[in-house]
Known about the structure:
The protein is mostly helical.
Amino acid sequence: MKESEKKWFDAARAGRIDEIETLYRGKDIIDLDLKEPKTGMTAMHIACAHDDAAMVKFLYGLGALTTVEDNYGRTPKKVATFMSRAYQALVVAERFEMDRSMLDM
């Protein structure tokens, strides 16, 4: 992986919109939907996984696709569904209910 590509994915993970913009506008990264070799995740997938609404909006505004699948067949939307704080809270709440009901037996 090129150094600029590493910076791209690191910036997406850290929510550094200014760095994403610099890399894209400076033509260091020309493919908004560049995939990480190991996971196939794009910057949009990463932003969704990190529940980073500002980064998602920024990447979408630049033209990043929401239909690209990672190596596991997940689109950014699917990643967002499973990684958002609201979804995680729901899973925890449901698990707590299940565990509590087992104690009532």
